Amino acid sequence: MKILAILTLCFIVKCNSYKILAIFPHNGRSHHIFFTTLIEELAKRKHDVTVINYHSVPSLPNLRQISLQDKEDEVDQVNIEEHLKILAKSDFAIAYEEAYACQYLANMNCKKLMNNREVQELIASRTHFDVVLVEQFVTDCGLAVAYKLNAPAIGMTSHILLPWTYARLGAPNNPAFVQNHFFASGTYPNMWNKIKSAIINFAMNTYYWHVTQRIDTEIVNEVYPGTPHLEELGKNMSLILINQYFPLTGPRLYSSNVVEIGGMHVKDNVQIEDKSLQKFLDNANKDVVYVSFGSVASNVSRKISNEIKKVIEKNSNLLFVWKTDVTDWVPPSNVFLGKWMPQTAIICHPKVVAFVTHSGMLSTTEAMHCGIPIVAIPLFGEQYSNAQSAVESGLGVSLDVLTLNQVVLEDALNTVLQEKYQKKAKELSRLWKDRPLSPMDTTIFWIEYVARNKGAVNMKPPTVDMPLYQYLMLDAILVVGSVILLIIFILVKLVSLVTSKKSPPQKNVKKANKRKHQ
């Protein structure tokens, strides 16, 4: 009987196990953290997983890695000193810089992916995969790999949707109510922000489709001639899994092909391995503030660092944990410094009451999960939108990095330390966690759903392939408008005809008047 049960269990595991290929062709550390959490969980659930990425993954028996890492890889950090010079310009200039940077990353990542020997061998082997996970960031070349392997594709993001992704999903990106990715337009933008958002979206999308995407398609076709345009492959994705969730980012108008999995990477009960850090937090007799600008912006400018130092030195009534590379400073006793921190474990610690952050999506969703209000200091990318979402949801406040100083930062900290923000953060955390399935279980369900149905279920709305004039109903408006104008024209003619028949001719009237006078 026991043998039968074991055989039955093995059969069930086999039936529910799929061959999954995951392609994450960007070398950003924060992206890696988000996606690797999923890869590890898929492997633990007995799926046969192959991942193409840059950074190392856990060693598991059913997990294979194809590394894109090479000696020429650039550091995935942003030079904040230089970036602050760009921020001093207009939002339009910033958007142009972002578009150019995205193009550079896209074309570089595409070349490395398509020219990788192991990737080419994988495609040549015609290995069967039940589903392919493809990062939706700046390059779609991973979709070409899925196409060559004849496997259904699922898109994934570690952030909110980029402006050029909406169209392929058939989702509205209306600047009247959809936050702009590259500046804090807000969910209820004023007239100028609507106009600015519309111009930036149009320019960014045009540049992406006609420059970035065109070059990437050429790169793919140099290796695999006859591959369709990458934008067409993007429209054929089964669905997309996005790292956002409505308690933070607000309700959005999406179809069934868009699934929110905000906070998928967050693990509960993460332990702090650094004993000195654990002791610092456990023995804290004052409120603790955590300060971190993420993995990409960890080398913050001297200006920002100096202002943070002043706040720490002046506020001895608070304790600070600061993830930083600062070395030219003798820190006071109320701060713990470290180059790398177990962030979720820290901000979920009961002694931690506030989080000073660059408002990257991973950091912001972790704050939501732990119920900690934030002081957001966005620096680039979608961080402005994330910070605005935090403000609108009540999770925290947002500061302009260009006007940041000790007084401004202290005022912001005092604001989020108020009972109003502390209670609101706990309430948002409760709403964030109140879901039918955990973010991880939701993610894996939909991956298995597509694999189980071989990508055959059509979840795309008709708006994906609908011409703009039909989407805006311009054809229907033209027809109805023409009919209305025709009816009005006919009525005017009829009225004119009737009134002209009732009125006697002018000459006869004159003759009748003459006879009367005679």
Automatic annotation (TrEMBL):
PROSITE patterns: UDPGT (PS00375)
GO CC terms: membrane
EC number, as in UniProt: 2.4.1.17
CDD domains, A to Z: GT1_Gtf-like (cd03784)
Topology of the protein relative to the lipid bilayer: Single-pass membrane protein
Compartmental location: Membrane
Keywords: Glycosyltransferase, Membrane, Signal, Transferase, Transmembrane, Transmembrane helix
Signal peptide region: 1-17
Enzyme class, first EC level, given as a word: transferase
Residue stretches spanning the membrane: 468-492
Catalyzed reaction equations: glucuronate acceptor + UDP-alpha-D-glucuronate = acceptor beta-D-glucuronoside + UDP + H(+)
GO molecular function: glucuronosyltransferase activity
Family (UniProt): Belongs to the UDP-glycosyltransferase family.
The protein, known as: UDP-glucuronosyltransferase
Lineage: Eukaryota, Metazoa, Ecdysozoa, Arthropoda, Hexapoda
